[in-house]
Amino acid sequence: MATSAQRGRCVTGIDGLDNILGGGIPTSNIVLVTGPSGTGKTTLAMEFLARGAVHGEIGIMVTTQEGQEKLLSNIPRLDFLKEAMFKKGTITILELAEVLRSAGVSPTQMDEAAVDKLVGALGKVVSTAKVTRLVIDTVDTILTDVKDETLDAILLTRLSEVLYKEGCTAMLVSSRGTSGVLAAVSDGIVLLGNLDRKGDLLRTMQVVKMKGTSHSRARYVIDLTSYGVLVTPLLKGGS
Amino acid sequence: MAEELHAQVAAKLEEIGPSVAVALELKVDSYFDVIRGLVDDFSARKGLCCFYITASVPSSTLSNALVALEVDTKDVRFVDCISHTLMGKIEPGERVAHVESPSMLEYVVLKIEYFARQNEGKKALVIIDSVNSFAIHNDIKMLSEFFTVLLNSLKVREAYPVVLSLPDSLKPEVKEMLALVCDYTLTI
Asked: What is the pLDDT of residue B117?
């Protein structure tokens, strides 16, 4: 198996995040982007796809919550996200329901065999379209009715095998936080949050783990702008 | 004398050059002359962008005052940290970035980053108005860290950072902090 140095890096294009990671996400890593609602998870994931698309990388967002139109209208305008990227297929937004249907899987009967079929269908899409950036927003919805957490592990492990083979780097959006099986099995965790500082609510970002690279674990303040996610260190005031 | 003051401010800044954090001590009655010197005589004539961080006066008031002084404000961008706290009407626009409170210092840094990207790295004069106002809303350790981060990032960009201060109403510890984080003190 190749080392991360041999595998190279997927430069996310999100300047602040790449700086924190020392140059990007090790290629083929599965990164959990997690945090409460309204912290910028979908925006970050969309920027990840758009920054790749600027350089001709093919990206897919599997969305489980909203259709394309609503999804795009709900995130801040990104100057570099162009209509042409969708028209040319550099970025494709797929609804999970479609992927499940194509895999012959019922979302209410998710078991190991169904997970295998789903991963197989995703792998086929990634392989056929030569996808190098994959986003699933949100991964929680896939396993929403499943009480057995081992299925989370199975999903991630199988997906990881498929993506590694294809050289595809993934962001899985979740609101489950940094505990649980998803967080334990993923290669990396980017934690987004809200920090209440004397009544001021700051949006924050912290890379909690990223296999295959040494990185800052400090908390940063972020702003969601038309130039993408901007990042600056959290001021501590000597505390 | 007042007529010459704005020109003196510009000449002095020209002499000091970029990448030098300047603490500009002024008196209240020379405020508008100094602003005119900075924005018009210095920034506009040098073809710089001007990023005006205000924690004292709402950007709309400042903008109107500059227009009244017949200063060209086309290249002026405001980071307005005060309008929200005054519960005034917030009018979104390309030239103003609002920060909810002067205590949300990280967002001041991020709004400057935003404008720097908008202006594609063009050199800028950055006015911080004023240390007195920021000191009302922040403790000294926080303020010190903020100025260190902001001023260093501006110096790397070869900007012209100018921190306005009214020394007569400045606490000694804020004055000390300013001397520490700035490279040059200019008294008007």
From this structure: 95
Q: Does any CB of chain A come closer than 8 Å to the CB of residue B136?
A: no
Residues of B in contact with A197 (CB under 8 A): 103
Average pLDDT, chain B: 94
Residue B132 contacts by C-beta under 8 Å, 6 or more apart in sequence? Answer: B56, B165, B166, B169, B170, B174
In a domain, B40, yes or no: yes
Q: Which H or E run includes B113?
A: helix B105-118
B79 part of a folded domain = yes
- Domain range spanning residue B121? 19-187
**What pLDDT score was predicted for residue A66?**
66
Residue to mutate among B77, B99, B106, with most A CBs inside 10 A, is: B106
pTM of the model: 0.93
How many CB atoms lie under 10 A from the CB of residue A5?
10
Task: Provide the domain count of chain B.
Answer: 1
In a domain, B13, yes or no: no
Helices (runs of H) and strands (runs of E) counted in chain A? 10, 11
Model confidence over A67-123: pLDDT tens digits? 778 888 888 899 999 999 999 999 999 998 889 899 998 877 888 999 999 999 999
- With respect to residue B142, please indicate whether it lies within any of the assigned structural domains: yes
Burial of residue A84, with CB atoms counted within 10 A of its CB: 0-12 exposed, 13-18 middle, 19 or more buried:
exposed
Domains, chain A: 8-233 (3.40.50.300)
Nearest by CB: B146 against A200, A222, A235: A235
CB contact (8 A) between residue A200 and residue B110: no
Residues of A in contact with B181 (CB under 8 A): none
CATH number for B109: 3.40.50.300
A121-146: pLDDT as tens digits: 999 999 999 999 999 999 988 877 67
